[in-house]
């Protein structure tokens, strides 16, 4: 991103036309980044709460008062049990410097509880680790040469624009595009074929595709023999998933499955053409999300798709980046090693805050320090999250740019800089370039970077290790493992001068195998999973909440609800930028005409979606974009900007995925009624 600065003020942001990954394009929301930075509601001084928790009444205080208050409270709690302190952070910035560097050092030295950062990607990352050994895959820069592109559980027009640009190039060159998505998203409607399965059933679909490939000998036997483990066992498993059986589970036609598997195998094996799968997050947000990713991840190895630069699969490229987490986060500072502090899962923060503790190794959480996250809006079952945050005996510190739903519960609010105002280094989302975030403007008001807040706190708490004096540039320089061949020629010095540098990777990284597993092969059968007490083969693990698995619940709440990201928001970021919120309008719920009619719901009317966990109001859009049995509420709205002060996470559950302990946002049964049928909220 290039920033134009005039008289110290950022006046324009634009994509860097020279960057091959993004080709000069910014997505809608980030192109409004200056509106966000200079937003009249920016938090510009430290504040202390003067109203009730959640009410949002604050008064400015000095940095000295704020830091003294925080240091005093944390020291007192740490003297009793540092594990009663919990950091909470995720995607506000995923920069290596402003994310988990100085913050991690601070909490490690303190001996605070560890946070299991599962809220987004851990189901799929765990599945890939078992299957490929790491989050690695094809380089999407070659996608324009693919002949078939399967967009599986992703909506790249909204959430991965730079990949979509390349998909369109491939389409112009004759590629077939397929979307696998319960919802006819902006992306699905532009694909040649859309397979609208029920949420959480992808594992069955992938196994039935394998069934067809095996039945019809559409297999790359040479690749399988040289670069995979467990083919015979996988064959036995897949043969149980006939297209007929999977069609019933997924709610799709047998023809959809036969057609897709046939085309995939025919192109890859018979015609030796590149076939690509972009696997995204949609399929990961149900009970069986981990195993679904594992099943899909086996497909390219069965047909030898990796042989081509434009073939294979990509979920994430993060495993390619040689990042020195030990230097950044300094886990060696933990007191009491080799024993570790307890770990708290961020995806069940509601229950964790409401847990009274047991006095023995599992204390009640007494202090919470939130940065880079808005859990009251984004974490599942948010009625519980808000109840936890409202605890009078909880001391809450929030580092923020804005007064979010979470900030409203803070005892102390600390103003953080935006990315125009600080230094950082980034891995990439879907491409393979390291990026430097150079500082463009001076911090606004009294805002300071996260790193500086933890540096100042460390000093007040008497943490004397030299790493607490590292500058942001020092930390940036420590982030990259200089000795790793993938980082040859890449250092902070060169990166900050050039802005971005591509990792040194083979053009088709898995063409000759070389997976990051212990065997060096793609593990259809995983001995490590067996040892971990898990099913060593991919399987279909049904959602928690379906008529088949929870018939009594489904009788009361017959509709499956998903709440994927809206195009103009970034999770809950940007929701408060008026121009972007105006484009999204208001919270909507898409519902199929045949589900709307019997409920007396007309397009444009207010509806209430509810289950035993909570409810939310939304404006109905009666549309066959949502398949029958499905409702879709694009997210993540700030609760306080919604008509009833609620969002989709009032309805989601705190249950976890089969692998990776991740949330199941899209495994959620609800009922919907016309809002007029209920009392006003
Ligand atoms: N504009 C925008 N871009 C973003 C974000 C954002 O909030 N806004 N968030 C960023 C982040 S943190 C992430 S993790 C990614 C997420 O972005 P994606 O990886 O695209 O994932 P989702 O948006 O969760 O879901 C994508 C699609 O999956 C579908 N889906 C839901 N359930 C299922 C299912 O069970 N199976 C299948 N096959 N499909 C399903 C949804 O209908 C949706 O159209 O996007 C990133 N990019
Ligand atoms: N229902 C439903 N819930 C979801 C999802 C979904 O699809 N549906 N998606 C899930 C996913 S994939 C993810 S990744 C999570 C994301 O959830 P979060 O990690 O909470 O991400 P955001 O909602 O973007 O909130 C980040 C906050 O960090 C702040 N911030 C940004 N930069 C900085 C900084 O430099 N310093 C500080 N101190 N603060 C900063 C922003 O102002 C913003 O309020 O939400 C999850 N929740
Ligand atoms: Mo995410």
UniProtKB/TrEMBL annotation:
PROSITE patterns: 4FE4S_MOW_BIS_MGD (PS51669), MOLYBDOPTERIN_PROK_2 (PS00490)
Family of this protein: Belongs to the prokaryotic molybdopterin-containing oxidoreductase family.
Positions with biased composition (Basic and acidic residues): 1-19
Organism expressing this protein natively: Cupriavidus basilensis
Name the record gives this protein: Anaerobic dehydrogenase, typically selenocysteine-containing
Presence of the UniProt keyword Metal-binding in the record: yes
Protein's UniProt keywords contain Iron: yes
Chain ranges of the 4Fe-4S Mo/W bis-MGD-type domain: 1-41
One Pfam family from the record: Molydop_binding
Cofactors required: Mo-bis(molybdopterin guanine dinucleotide)
SUPFAM superfamilies: ADC-like, Formate dehydrogenase/DMSO reductase, domains 1-3
Keywords: Iron, Iron-sulfur, Metal-binding, Molybdenum, Oxidoreductase
Gene3D superfamilies associated with the record: 2.40.40.20, 3.40.50.740, ADC-like domains (2.20.25.90), Dimethylsulfoxide Reductase, domain 2 (3.40.228.10), Formate dehydrogenase/DMSO reductase (3.30.2070.10)
GO MF annotations in UniProt: iron-sulfur cluster binding; metal ion binding; molybdopterin cofactor binding; oxidoreductase activity
InterPro entries in alphabetical order: Asp_de-COase-like_dom_sf, MoPterin_dinucl-bd_dom, Mopterin_OxRdtase, Mopterin_OxRdtase_4Fe-4S_dom, Mopterin_OxRdtase_prok_CS, Prok_Mopterin_Oxidored, YoaE_C
CDD domains: MopB_3, MopB_CT_3
Start and end residues of each stretch annotated as Disordered: 1-20
């Amino acid at each position: 991103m290039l920033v134009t600065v005039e008289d110290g003020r950022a006046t324009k942001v634009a994509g860097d036309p020279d960057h091959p990954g993004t080709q000069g394009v910014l997505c809608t929301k980030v192109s409004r980044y200056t509106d966000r930075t200079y937003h009249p509601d920016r938090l510009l001084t430290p504040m202390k709460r003067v109203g009730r928790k959640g009410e949002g009444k604050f008064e400015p205080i000095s940095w000295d008062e704020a830091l003294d208050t925080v240091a005093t409270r944390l020291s007192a709690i740490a003297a009793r049990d540092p594990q009663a302190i919990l950091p909470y952070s995720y995607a506000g910035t995923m920069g290596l410097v402003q994310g988990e560097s100085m913050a991690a050092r601070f909490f490690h030295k303190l001996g605070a509880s560890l946070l299991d950062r599962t809220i987004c990607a851990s189901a799929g990352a765990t599945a890939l680790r078992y299957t490929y050994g790491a989050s690695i895959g094809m380089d999407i820069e070659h996608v324009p040469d693919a002949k078939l592109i399967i967009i599986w559980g992703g909506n790249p027009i909204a959430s991965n624009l730079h990949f979509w640009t390349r998909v369109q190039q491939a389409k112009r060159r004759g590629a077939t595009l397929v979307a696998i998505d319960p919802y006819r998203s902006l992306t699905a409607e532009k694909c040649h074929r859309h397979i609208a399965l029920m949420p959480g059933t992808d594992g069955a679909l992938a196994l039935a595709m394998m069934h067809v490939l095996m039945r019809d000998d559409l297999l790359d036997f040479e690749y399988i023999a040289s670069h995979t483990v467990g083919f015979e066992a996988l064959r036995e498993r897949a043969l149980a998933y006939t297209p007929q059986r999977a069609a019933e589970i997924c709610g799709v036609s047998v023809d959809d499955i036969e057609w897709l598997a046939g085309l995939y195998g025919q192109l890859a094996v018979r015609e030796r053409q590149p076939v690509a799968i972009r696997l995204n997050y949609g399929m990961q947000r149900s009970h069986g999300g981990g195993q679904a990713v594992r099943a899909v991840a086996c497909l390219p190895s069965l047909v030898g798709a990796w042989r081509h630069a434009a073939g294979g699969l990509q979920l994430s490229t993060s495993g390619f980046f040689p990042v020195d987490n030990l230097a950044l986060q300094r886990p060696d500072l933990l007191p009491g090693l080799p024993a570790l502090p307890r770990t708290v899962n961020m995806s069940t923060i509601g229950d964790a805050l409401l847990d009274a503790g047991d006095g023995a190794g599992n204390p009640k959480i007494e202090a919470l320090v939130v940065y880079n996250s808005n859990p009251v809006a984004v974490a599942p079952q948010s009625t519980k999250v808000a109840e936890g945050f409202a605890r009078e005996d909880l001391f809450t510190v929030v580092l923020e740019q804005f007064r979010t739903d979470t900030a409203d519960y803070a005892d102390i609010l600390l103003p953080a800089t935006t990315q125009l105002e600080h230094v950082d280094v980034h891995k990439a989302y879907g491409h393979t370039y390291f990026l430097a975030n150079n500082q463009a403007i001076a911090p606004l008001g009294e805002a300071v970077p996260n790193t500086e807040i933890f540096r100042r706190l460390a000093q007040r708490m008497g943490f004397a290790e030299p790493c607490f004096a590292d500058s942001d540039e020092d930390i940036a320089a420590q982030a990259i493992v200089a000795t790793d061949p993938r980082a040859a020629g890449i250092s902070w010095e060169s990166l900050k001068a050039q802005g971005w540098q591509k990792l040194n990777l083979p053009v088709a990284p898995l063409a000759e195998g070389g997976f990051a597993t212990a065997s060096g092969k793609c593990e259809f059968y995983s001995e490590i999973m067996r040892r971990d007490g898990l099913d060593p083969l991919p399987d279909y693990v049904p959602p928690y909440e379906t008529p088949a698995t929870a018939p009594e619940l489904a009788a009361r709440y017959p509709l499956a609800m998903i709440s994927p990201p809206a195009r103009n928001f970034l999770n809950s970021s940007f929701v408060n930028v008026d121009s972007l919120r105006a484009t999204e309008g208001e919270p909507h719920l898409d519902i199929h005409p045949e589900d709307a009619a019997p409920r007396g719901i007309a397009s444009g009317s207010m509806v209430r979606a509810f289950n035993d966990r909570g409810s939310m109001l939304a404006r109905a859009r009666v549309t066959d974009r949502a398949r029958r049995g499905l409702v879709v509420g694009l997210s993540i709205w700030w609760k306080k900007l919604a008509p009833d002060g609620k969002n989709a996470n009032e309805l989601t559950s705190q249950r976890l995925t089969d692998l990776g302990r991740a949330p199941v946002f899209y495994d959620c049964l609800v009922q919907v009624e016309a809002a007029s049928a209920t009392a006003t909220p």
